[in-house]
Specification:
This protein is an all-beta fold. Among the domains are: 14-55 and 499-618, Jelly Rolls; 152-247, no CATH class. It is built from three helices and 51 strands. Strands 1, 44, 45, 48, 49 and 51 form a six-stranded antiparallel beta sheet that branches. A six-stranded mixed beta sheet has the order 14-13-15-21-17-18, with no helix packed on it. Strands 4-40-39-38 form a four-stranded antiparallel beta sheet, with no helix packed on it. The chain is elongated, with a radius of gyration of 33 Å.
Length: 621
């Protein structure tokens, strides 16, 4: 009799995929092209020092509204280590104590527009598009032009004029000085210009070689001539012995400086000058100061940079050059290079035309992330590179992986940036795009870039790192700072008492086979989460739609004050914990896991996301 022998059915093969070695977000690539290590959806996450994604800390309000939108946050620091924060709100300038939130007005008539600043010679200088102010650390701020340097425009003049040009006219100061080497018998002195406004004072050398005021004189302002009632004595040394200070205001001169909105330092050796631009009436002009003087901008110290139809937007230093970045223009260069050389004791600045095409879109997004010079263009954040072969500078995109959203933001010209602790923060429309200097990559355009993250609900109009902490100012006139867990504990994970919603999603994954259904197994699918004093989250599966499959919460330290005894799912283990999803899903074509957290003062961090599955039938329709 024949026997029949049956073979047991073959056991289904089990597959597993782990998402680890996390990087940043990818808001640009096609859904099927996103790398396993990046996330297409990760609001309010940031990399920790080891590169793992975790929930961002929140902001806390430093002071109530200062009465107007925050236009600038400025840091004053003098040689004695005295540091203060000055905040430009509306038309006011305030000295703000960041410890107790109190403020003192130091100026009340500013332009209600964004301002920039620099510290030089123990003073804080501020430009707001209408004013050029100086603050010395106490009392009120003052207009620089009120006490600006008075140049001696000519020396060794004869009574009839002539002499030697000495110092150019100061754009900020209508006053000028002429010095004469007087000859016996002369009482009439011809100044180096006519149609003057007034004689400020006349001085002469006395027998001891000291300058003394002269009160007996008359002046012909139209002719620019001064007549002494008595001849002054001749200097025993043969040097200049008559000094006349007069005033002649040139319309629009001071405004060339006061209407500027951007600045930088540049020079050669110890000869550092202040360069300014951003004057909307002189879009392609910039001016530079006299060496060592922030209150002296000679009227001849200016450069016309390229065509006037695209404005100068900002400056970036690269090696020994100063790069001038303009608005994009198809007909003219948008990047120029300034160089400095010495000609004897004089510094000569020259400007060369550079790149066309890539130009800046915002004046407020220039920053240096470690040694990388960055600016915002309409096509994303760019950095300046130098070819090792040709030594030619090129602008390369740094923000490829967020450009899919960043370049769609309206009003990029209003975006602002701040560099703090190895991150480049770009604020626009309540969102923050963040480049992490610790994580570089090579993007599809073959230039190096950064891993990026993005935050939501951060209403920053301006930002500043001050004493190692990140501060932002809002349209409502409030000042906020970014909290740290070391100072605030778990209360760091909220925005002024409001919960922060964060998430990390894997890519929408075919799991290696786009033609077959997959069954997601209960065991082996879940997330490996970071230990926090208090942590929680929800695990979501996404296939045809999104649904939550598991919620979890835990405490991972023995701080009994932080522990909610109703929410201990996984004990108090101070090391990573695997949270299983414990949900089976059948017939998944493509699969995605999202881990979310929206709990007040709870943290979330991820080390790994794991999916265990089996291949099922082919997809037939």
């Amino acid at each position: 009799m024949a026997t029949f022998k049956s073979n047991p059915p073959a056991e289904e093969k089990t597959y597993a995929k782990s998402y680890r070695g996390f990087k940043g977000v990818d808001l640009t690539s096609a859904i099927t092209e996103i790398d396993d290590s990046r996330s297409p959806y990760a609001p309010n996450m940031i990399a920790d020092l080891s590169g793992f994604p975790c929930k961002r800390t929140g902001f806390t309000k430093v002071c109530d509204s200062l009465g107007g939108r925050i236009n600038g946050i400025h840091a004053y620091l003098n040689g004695d280590g005295v540091r203060k924060m000055l905040v430009h709100a509306g038309a006011g300038l305030f000295d703000v104590n960041v410890e107790d939130g109190t403020s003192t007005s130091v100026y009340a008539s500013m332009n209600n527009a964004r301002s920039t600043s620099f510290v030089y010679g123990g003073k804080l200088y501020i430009l707001d598009g209408e004013n050029y102010l100086a603050y010395s650390g106490s009392g009120s701020a003052a207009q620089v032009e009120a006490s600006a340097y008075v140049p001696t425009t000519r020396i060794a003049m004869q009574p009839a004029g002539g002499g030697t040009e000495h110092e150019p006219v100061n754009l900020l100061q209508p006053k000028r000085i002429n010095q004469f080497a007087w000859k016996t018998g002369s009482t009439v002195f011809q100044l180096d210009t006519k149609n003057i406004d007034s004689i400020v004072k006349c001085e002469q050398i006395d027998a001891s070689g000291s300058w003394q005021n002269v009160t007996g004189y008359t002046a012909d302002l139209v002719a620019g001539r001064v007549t002494f009632s008595a001849a002054p004595p001749v200097a025993s040394t043969g040097d200049d012995n008559v000094r006349i200070t007069f005033s002649k205001r040139v319309s629009g001169y001071a405004e060339r400086v006061k209407n500027c909105t951007i600045n930088t330092f540049y020079g050669i050796g110890s000869d550092s000058r202040i360069f300014i631009s951003g004057n909307n009436k002189y879009r392609n002009y910039d001016w530079y100061s006299w060496s060592g003087k922030a209150d002296y901008f000679p009227d001849v110290n200016y450069t016309v940079v390229g065509a006037e139809n695209n404005a100068i937007m900002g400056y970036l230093k690269q090696y020994d050059s100063l790069m001038i970045i303009k608005q994009a223009n198809d007909q003219d260069a948008s990047i120029f290079k300034r160089s400095a050389t010495l000609n004897g004791s004089d510094t000569i600045f020259t400007t060369q035309q550079g790149l066309a095409g890539v130009g800046a879109v915002s004046r407020w997004c220039f920053g240096t992330l470690y040694d990388d010079n960055l600016f915002l263009a309409k096509d994303g954040v760019f950095g300046l590179d130098t070819s090792q072969v040709t030594q030619q500078r090129t602008a390369q995109v740094r923000s490829f992986y967020v450009n899919g959203e960043l370049t769609k933001e309206p009003g990029l010209e209003e975006a602002v940036c701040c560099v703090s602790k190895g991150y480049y923060y770009l604020f626009v429309n309540g969102r923050v795009y963040i480049a992490d200097a610790r994580q570089k990559n090579v993007n599809p355009s073959k230039s190096f870039g950064y891993e990026w993250f993005y935050w939501t609900d951060v209403p920053a109009r301006c930002a500043l790192e001050y004493e190692g902490e990140l501060y932002i100012g809002t349209d409502e006139g409030e000042l906020h700072k970014l909290k740290t867990e070391s100072k605030f504990g778990m209360e760091a994970y909220s925005d002024n008492g409001r919960a922060i919603s964060c998430a990390w999603a894997t890519k929408m994954d075919t799991l290696g086979d786009c033609s077959s259904f997959k069954r997601i197994d209960k065991p082996g699918t879940g997330v490996l989460v970071m230990p926090f004093a208090s942590a929680s989250g929800q695990i979501y599966y996404v296939m045809d739609g999104e649904k939550m499959v598991k919620g979890f919460s835990m405490n991972t330290t023995f701080d009994w004050n932080d522990i909610d005894f109703d929410n201990i799912d996984f004990g108090t283990l101070p090391y990573p914990t695997f949270v299983p999803a414990r949900k089976k899903e059948r017939k998944a074509r493509m699969f995605q896991i999202i881990v979310k957290n929206d709990a007040l003062n709870d943290g979330l961090g991820l080390y790994e996301i794991r999916v265990q599955y089996k291949m099922k039938n082919p997809i037939k329709r």
